[in-house]
Amino acid sequence: MEINLDFLKNSKYFNEQYPAVEKIYKLYTINDYRDVISNSRLLLESIVKKIFSLENLNQYYPIRDGEYRNLRNDTHYLRSEVNYPLSIMDLFDEVRRMGNAAVHDSKLEPDKKQAWHCICDLHDILVFLINSYENKDLYYIRPDISMEAQTDEKHYFYRKSKQPNTQHIRLSDHKTTKKKQNNHQKKLKKAKYYSSTPKKEDKQNNTQPTISNTKPKETIFNKIKHFFTQK
Fold first, then answer.
1. Scanning 24, 44, 130, 166, which has the fewest C-beta atoms within 10 Å of its C-beta?
2. What digits encode the pLDDT tens for the residues 58-90?
């Protein structure tokens, strides 16, 4: 499997990182795996500083007494300030931990697989950042990160800048919900009520006068009155 990082050359915000990426890949080709991982950590530091600049974050953020502003605290602060996918932030931590081990643990002998894994982490981090801040459609190496990092038609940076105070709704979820509502309304309009028993007439609402065809009953007084009228 080959990897191509030439997309950094034309990047608006991250083209400065291309020489470092090119150096890392050359170290990989000569089997210098320890330097691949240690230089990947150095590159991550410059990437984090660039994100601080793009997001206008305070580089002098508060820290606990006795601690220092290092890559570990920088990435932790970044987690609290930006809405990056969790899988992307995990790649930040993975490159940092691998780099620390390569620099400080002299007994550790990184192999080819570990070095390649570190390069792939950097690749997907940079793809996410360029897709997000420059509205590109670069491909990720890991399909699971691709699914999480890009969930709709607009990328992170444009969603954040245009709708900073509103919760984003996925486009697919929005379409599905709207479609269900329309179908439900159509079913309501077509629905009819059928009953096996005849409807009872409401006597209270029947205000029209009724005409009776039945003759009045003939009483004794009516017979006497009829007798005298005939005379």
1. 166
2. 999 999 888 889 999 999 999 999 989 999 999
